[in-house]
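Progress note, sequence design subtask.
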């Protein structure tokens, strides 16, 4: 793990009370699960005549026209190829929800690391742009639900990151200060930047960042090359 700050007292003065975790691509590889869901949708649509890679459908989710998980992305894919029927569309949506959940896999050592953080007496929180139902389903699927004291989802605050509402809500609910809180996330723009503006400490989960957003130097307090690197902050 490479840290930006070097002074041990700056890194961990003993006053940290909570860790706020992004969920998707921080605790588990959500992109891989979505790609597998896209693969299954294409297999259903084209049967044995699949000629496109799952990434073709996945790119529809990346356009920003709708949300990252919205079914309308599937609808557009089908309509642009003149293969849309209401019945097949509903089936594709069912496949998408089932497969992205079933294919979730935790990153290595997540459970062991969370166990050790809980033993240190830290409050653990989820801050996610998923809605509450999706968040609960995913955390239940990977066996992590009971680790978290609070889940802040998009329907909790009515906003999505980088709006600061998620972070402020967590601080208020836990009754803690920004300097007593560490935010862990894979998205520089949506997790790290807004957290730092509020005075929270930040750990960039580089292992989960699949984007190519350019230079990231000096915009976070700590860099995590694997999830268990978090434990180095508490030695």
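Output:
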């Amino acid at each position: 793990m490479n840290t930006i700050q070097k002074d041990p007292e700056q890194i961990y003065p003993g006053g940290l009370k909570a860790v706020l975790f992004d969920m998707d691509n921080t605790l588990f590889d959500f992109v891989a699960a979505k790609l597998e869901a896209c693969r299954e949708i294409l297999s259903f649509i084209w049967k044995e005549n699949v000629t496109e890679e799952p990434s073709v459908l996945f790119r529809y989710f990346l356009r920003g026209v709708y949300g990252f998980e919205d079914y309308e992305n599937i609808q557009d894919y089908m309509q642009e190829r003149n293969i849309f029927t209401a019945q097949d569309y509903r089936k594709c949506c069912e496949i998408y929800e089932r497969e992205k959940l079933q294919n979730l896999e935790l990153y290595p050592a997540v459970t062991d690391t969370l166990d050790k953080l809980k033993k240190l007496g830290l409050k653990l929180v989820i801050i996610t742009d998923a809605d509450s139902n999706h968040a609960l389903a995913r955390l239940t699927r990977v066996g992590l639900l009971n680790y978290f004291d609070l889940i802040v989802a998009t329907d909790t605050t009515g906003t999505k990151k980088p709006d600061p509402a998620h972070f402020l809500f967590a601080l208020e609910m836990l009754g803690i200060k920004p300097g007593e809180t560490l935010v862990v996330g894979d998205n520089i723009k949506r997790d790290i930047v807004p957290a730092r503006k509020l005075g929270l400490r930040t750990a960039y989960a580089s292992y989960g960042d699949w984007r190519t957003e350019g230079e990231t130097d000096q915009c976070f307090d700590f860099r995590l090359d694997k999830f268990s690197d978090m434990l180095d902050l508490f030695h």
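The first strand starts at residue 2 and ends at 3. Work on this subtask will continue into the next period as scheduled.
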